[in-house]
């Protein structure tokens, strides 16, 4: 959904580029050097950068890559063509890998293949064996139409090769057109996406994972699929394949310019508002083992003492893992005005099975999808929560007029023309015990 605002971001980037060149002249900085610096990040919006995204290939530079078991980028077999990173048929350039290693990550790229072409994306690759696929699980890239029914489902595009076949709901573009891939691996939960459809979801730990590896061709390679960190690899398989717009974010790393809203010890930086007179913050909220616990009663909320306008907010939440009792809650954004239950704001819903809904409080100016809206409530597109008692991750992008809600890596809602103003961030106490951790924010510059 960030793509929906990328056109506006591009216009702003052009304006800033003109201004930067003018300032460079005034300040004595080389306009060419300043322009080159801006071009290097031109593929990312301000919101992308705040969310931790980095370009692995921007259409010009291969600096982020090197050959597998080599120090430098291959001198043959790979080339830059029309802002694409192309592996040439029979070029014998070998696989390439990122210079950096990643544990938990999210990778997005676009690719297209020639007729009957074959390739793949491997991850958590280490240079232990002669090829990258002997340690790293593979997102299969293939001209499905060219092979017809001659291959097993677990060998088709989007598959976790030879381990998990892709969903039958997958949608492929015709041969020669670009497909969009997203791979997300966090806390041992792996997802493969193809053209906006989740085609694989599995865990990379436990007995099921071990059994599938043992039953596959990878079983004879010690350590396959078990590395906690490794390189991203693009496979050379003897066919013409094009990759472009390759970006990644390290899901284990702090956000850029990260502000920790919860220090894991106490509620410094927060004020408490309650419906019961005389109630203190300690009556409702407590901290244990780095987890912020809300009893749920009395009804009310805590809010930041500081105001925030444009940012990426990330946090984990769960309901009581022992009782597994479902409940309600919410995150209030750009809260302004009088402290009351409930204050004027945009609510990102946390109610069980409804996380990702919007609630408009106090007639907050915003636009939403009418077809999913009933009164003040705009329903999410689909359910993405984990079972009761398990941790979930909320990623909330508040970017000028846009508010985007993501639950466990899946975009569930988008509001636009939201009134842009500084306001508090609140967490509701709404009748049920709910836990929070890893609450942090990255300002959007």
Q: How would you characterize the overall build of this protein?
A:
The protein is mainly beta and 445 residues long. The protein has three domains: 1-44; 53-250, Jelly Rolls (Sandwich), CATH 2.60.120.560; 259-443, Exo-inulinase, domain 1 (Jelly Rolls, Sandwich). 12% of the residues lie in helices and 36% in strands. The protein is built from six helices and 29 strands. Strands 1, 3, 4, 6, 9, 10, 11 and 13 form an eight-stranded antiparallel beta sheet that branches. Strands 14, 16, 17, 19, 25, 26, 27 and 29 form an eight-stranded antiparallel beta sheet that branches. Strands 15-18-28-20-21-22-24-23 form an eight-stranded antiparallel beta sheet, with no helix packed on it.
Please work out how many helical segments DSSP would assign.
Answer: 6
According to DSSP, the number of beta strands is 29
What gyration radius follows from the Cα positions, in whole Å? 24 Å
Structural class: mainly beta
Mean of pLDDT = 91
CATH superfamily of the largest domain: Exo-inulinase, domain 1
CATH class annotation of the largest domain: Mainly Beta
Fraction of residues in helices? Answer: 10-25%
Q: Which topology of the largest domain does CATH recognise?
A: Jelly Rolls
Overall tally of domains? 3
């Amino acid at each position: 959904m960030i793509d929906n605002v990328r056109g506006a971001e591009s216009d702003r980037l052009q304006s800033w580029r003109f201004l930067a060149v003018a300032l460079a002249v005034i300040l004595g900085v080389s306009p060419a050097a300043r322009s080159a610096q801006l071009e290097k990040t031109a593929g990312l919006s301000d919101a992308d950068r705040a969310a931790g995204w980095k370009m692995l290939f921007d259409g010009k530079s291969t600096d982020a890559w090197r050959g597998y078991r080599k120090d430098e980028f291959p001198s043959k077999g790979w080339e830059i063509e029309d802002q694409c990173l192309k592996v040439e048929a029979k070029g014998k350039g070998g696989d390439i890998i990122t210079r950096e290693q990643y544990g938990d990550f999210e990778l997005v790229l676009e690719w297209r293949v020639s007729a009957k072409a074959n390739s793949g994306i491997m991850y958590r690759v280490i240079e232990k064996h002669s090829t990258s696929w002997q340690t790293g699980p593979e997102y299969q890239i293939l001209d499905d139409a060219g092979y017809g029914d001659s291959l097993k489902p677990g060998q088709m595009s989007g598959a976790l090769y030879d381990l998990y076949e892709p969903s039958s709901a997958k949608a492929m573009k015709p041969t020669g057109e670009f497909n969009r891939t997203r791979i997300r691996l966090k806390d041992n939960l792996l997802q493969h996406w193809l053209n906006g459809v989740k085609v694989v979801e599995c865990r990379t730990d436990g007995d099921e994972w071990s059994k599938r590896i043992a039953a596959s061709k990878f079983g004879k390679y010690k350590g396959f699929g078990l590395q906690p960190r490794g390189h991203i690899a693009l496979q050379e398989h003897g066919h013409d394949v094009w990759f472009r717009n390759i970006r990644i974010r390290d899901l284990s790393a702090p956000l850029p310019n990260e502000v920790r809203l919860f220090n894991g010890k106490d509620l410094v930086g927060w004020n408490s508002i309650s419906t019961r007179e005389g109630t203190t913050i300690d009556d409702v909220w407590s901290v244990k083992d780095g987890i912020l616990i809300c009893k749920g009663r009395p009804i009310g909320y805590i809010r930041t003492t500081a105001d925030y306008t444009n940012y990426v907010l990330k946090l984990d939440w769960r309901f009581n893992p022992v009782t597994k009792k479902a409940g309600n809650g919410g995150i209030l954004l750009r809260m302004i005005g009088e402290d009351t239950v409930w204050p004027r704001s945009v609510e990102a819903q946390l109610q069980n099975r409804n996380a990702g809904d919007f609630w408009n409080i106090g007639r907050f100016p915003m636009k939403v999808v009418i077809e999913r809206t009933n009164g003040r409530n705009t329903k999410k597109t689909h359910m993405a929560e984990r079972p009761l008692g398990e941790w979930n991750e909320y990623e909330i992008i508040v970017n000028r007029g846009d508010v985007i809600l993501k639950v466990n890596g899946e975009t569930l809602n988008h509001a636009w023309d939201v009134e842009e103003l500084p306001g508090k961030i609140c967490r509701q106490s709404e009748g049920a015990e709910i836990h929070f951790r890893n609450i942090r924010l990255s300002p959007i510059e």
